[in-house]
Amino acid sequence: MRETLTLKDPETMAAWAEEQRRRGQRVALVPTMGYLHAGHLALVRRAQDEGDRVVVSIFVNPTQFGPNEDLARYPRDFDGDVTKLREAGVDVVFAPEAHAFYPQGFDSYVVPERLATGLCGASRPGHFRGVATVVLMLCHVTRADVAIFGEKDFQQLAVVRRMAQDLWLPTRIVGVPTVREPDGLAMSSRNVYLTPAARLQARALNQSLSDIAQQVQNGARDARQLENTLRQRLEATPGARVDYASIVDAQSLEPVAELNREAVAAVAVFFGSTRLIDNRRLPIPMTLS
Amino acid sequence: MRETLTLKDPETMAAWAEEQRRRGQRVALVPTMGYLHAGHLALVRRAQDEGDRVVVSIFVNPTQFGPNEDLARYPRDFDGDVTKLREAGVDVVFAPEAHAFYPQGFDSYVVPERLATGLCGASRPGHFRGVATVVLMLCHVTRADVAIFGEKDFQQLAVVRRMAQDLWLPTRIVGVPTVREPDGLAMSSRNVYLTPAARLQARALNQSLSDIAQQVQNGARDARQLENTLRQRLEATPGARVDYASIVDAQSLEPVAELNREAVAAVAVFFGSTRLIDNRRLPIPMTLS
Description:
Pantoate--beta-alanine Ligase, Chain: A,domain 2, 6-stranded parallel sheet, 37% helix
């Protein structure tokens, strides 16, 4: 098994990455906020396929949390995370301190505009500004040739892809399908917050999305009607408070009226103060024109 | 003399830059808006000292112009510029089309905050957002190891330095002293707009800044009083309309009251619709405590 380095200083991280570049080794980055689960480990395996060296960052990024969100209580298990990443054969665990990334006088943000206005952006103002900024910082520090993101955070992936394309970032962005619990719930570090009762009810996210996808498969095309079905199903779930249930264009994230192009159904649901998200790519209908 | 390539396509530019990187050649970038003068050529010479290969970009960046500014009439002389750069031994002239850098759906801006609020930022809202965004794009496309900027655009240099530092950009930012006409006027592509009478009066920018620097050298310490002297001198210049005349901290660009640290006097003056800027670093007083 390879040795796994744990680095905290961005300068040291950058020097390691420069050395890899000089040797012609491609670096694959997996940005995480830690408290790792099987979904993260799927990202690591993909990184190992895409790069010669794998860096996993663990950074609970303060700028992507709102003032009333769960920054302080976000679950952490650094030692457990490092053990998992060592067993997975990761080359570097990069865990910067918040003040190293946001020193006094920090003044430069990457701001996504239209892509950040709807869905999670509507209830989390500034969230995607924080995400885009820290992803760019991480790609720069690690000199990443490729960066790996989960499709569960669908809007995040769209924002990051667009940012990389818009700014000509030399890092290729790769999305990996969502990993699920045996009962279908999308894996998330936040699932640990759920009460046993809420944990059972949370299956409704995946189930309702699957039902919608099946209806589209069967010929349903009216996106507004499908959204209503989705929302009603979620609202009927005991303990659930729906933040959004939307069907949007897969690239622009704009609402779609009719399902005649690549679209995604996306939902966000609160159980108590815990906010869960999930999404499903909807099958594109065959056109017979 | 080396061959000079002219590239328009960012993908081709990036491929050339990747090839240089593979060969271990350091790329030095000089971002310009064209209509080149001796100040630009001083940046090119510095780039040749700093890098193995030199790229000069010519791009009149639409996002850094306000709706009532001179984007459409900004002076252009592409063929003349290429001749000058070929004679200077530049490796690549990179001249992307506006739609290549800002395609439909473009959504990601780099936004400087406090550093962009005062001085030129106050009268040109959004200007430094455009500057920071395009500089990041150019550094990415050219894989620049180093990028060279003139000190005449003092706030721009401060914003770009801060952006590179904040976002851990792997490009080193270098500032080069302002090149002046024989009578002291800072070289600028916009000087061509001036009427003969205004061209003579425009000497007041450099002269008033030199006077202030001399007063500081002689012991003056009250920044507000020095600002007033500077403004009055400029306001007394026939045909001049003062946009600002400020003494600010050299890093934070915040106003300073007393000259007890590194400060800069900066001015912006309109002659008709032509806006000229200049600045002078003020000598740091010796402390005898």
